[in-house]
Amino acid sequence: MSKADQMLAILWLIKSHKQITAKQLAEKLEIHIRTVYRYIDALCASGVPIISDSGHHGGYRLLGQFNEAPLVFDLDEQKALIHAASFALEAGYPYGEKLNQAVAKLKLYTNREQLEQIHLHEQGLDVISPQADAAKSSLLQEVEMAVAKRVTLRMHYQKGYGAAAETRDLNPYGLVCWKNKWYVVGYCHLRNEVRSFRVDRIRELSKMDTTFERPIDFSARQFILTSVLPEADKPEERISVKITGSEQALDDLCGHWFLAHALVERSQYEAHFQVQEKAIHTHLPYQLLSYGGTIQVKEPQMLIKMLRDITLNLHHYYSSLPID
């Protein structure tokens, strides 16, 4: 064990016994008794109230008030950390192994009552999302380290399926997990501007000898959101979209990450959006079709036409197929 782990183990053993001797601590941890004395001195210096009782029945114990308190975190803090770990692991957090070790250590150094409560809360919450590719974990770690150390990366990047990989030099400013995909945002030397790249499309990665300075107050999160959300500063380029339907369907529609930012007005059975025209010609009709007859588009006519054309094409295609 590391020095920190041994000190924590000593503190836990003292906390778990009414009184324990240095010899007993040394035997349990299989370390020299002088190491025990040294670590206890360090714990005392850090503010831990360890009391030493001399004599035949002496030993070490903790001050009563400290012994009754949680070792590091209270129950709600422990619960929050373990729940957060569940979300992080499902999102493909690059240091998943270390996160599991930290959670195991948290459970190890807690009292029995807290551990029982932790297990109850842990069993009561699950996170389901597309499984992260385990092979990408080491790649994410490399990117994260480059972001932290501000080291330029050279990557072979595949823009789309079937496309040839291109060599890009990138100053990585930050990592973002967006809709179950990891993106690295940074300055692309080929395009001479800030770009975002999907990590799962990086085929090869290496660190260069050059470093960079990250722009002050740059937000990778904001860059991603700005690139996918409607442009607030160009209202003249937006088109009014009015949709009626069941209250439950409209609740779900208005909560969508794209349409939530385009919502202008909402009543019980109608929602009014302002969206960019390009959305009407790309993803919006397909998104609305998934709601079937629970919603009805009232305007604009171009969106109604798009929906009609898509459904007619689908009808013609599938009606021509033989049915067994």
Describe it for me?
By secondary structure, the protein is an alpha+beta fold. It has 4 domains: 3-68, Winged helix-like DNA-binding domain superfamily/Winged helix DNA-binding domain (Arc Repressor Mutant, subunit A), CATH 1.10.10.10; 75-123; 134-227, SH3 type barrels, CATH 2.30.30; 235-318, Alpha-Beta Plaits (2-Layer Sandwich), CATH 3.30.70.240. 43% of the residues lie in helices and 23% in strands. It has 13 helices and 11 strands. Strands 6-5-4-3-7 form a 5-stranded antiparallel sheet. Helix 1 (3-16) packs across helix 3, helix 2 crosses helix 3 (33-45) and helix 5 (75-90) packs parallel to helix 7 (112-123). The radius of gyration is 29 Å and the shape is elongated. The model has no long low-confidence stretch (mean pLDDT 85).
Brief synopsis:
The protein has 324 residues and is of the alpha+beta class. The protein has 13 helices and eleven strands.
- End-to-end separation in angstroms reads 66 Å
Shape: elongated
Could you say what the CATH topology of the largest domain is called? SH3 type barrels
Number of domains: 4
Largest sheet properties:
5 strands, antiparallel
Number of strands: 11
Order of helix and strand elements from N to C terminus: HHHEEHHHHHEEEEEHEHEEHHEH
The low-confidence parts are none
What Rg is obtained from the alpha carbons, in whole angstroms? 29 Å
- CATH structural class of the largest domain: Mainly Beta
User: Which range best describes the helical content: under 10%, 10-25%, 25-40%, 40-55%, 55-70% or over 70%?
Assistant: 40-55%
For the largest sheet, list the strands in their spatial order. Answer: 6-5-4-3-7
Average of per-residue pLDDT values:
85
Strand content: 15-25%
User: Which CATH architecture of the largest domain would you pick?
Assistant: Roll
- Give me the secondary-structure category: alpha+beta
Discrete helix count = 13
Protein name: YafY family protein
InterPro entries: CBASS_pafABC_assoc_protein, HTH_11, PafC-like, WH-like_DNA-bd_sf, WH_DNA-bd_sf, WYL_dom
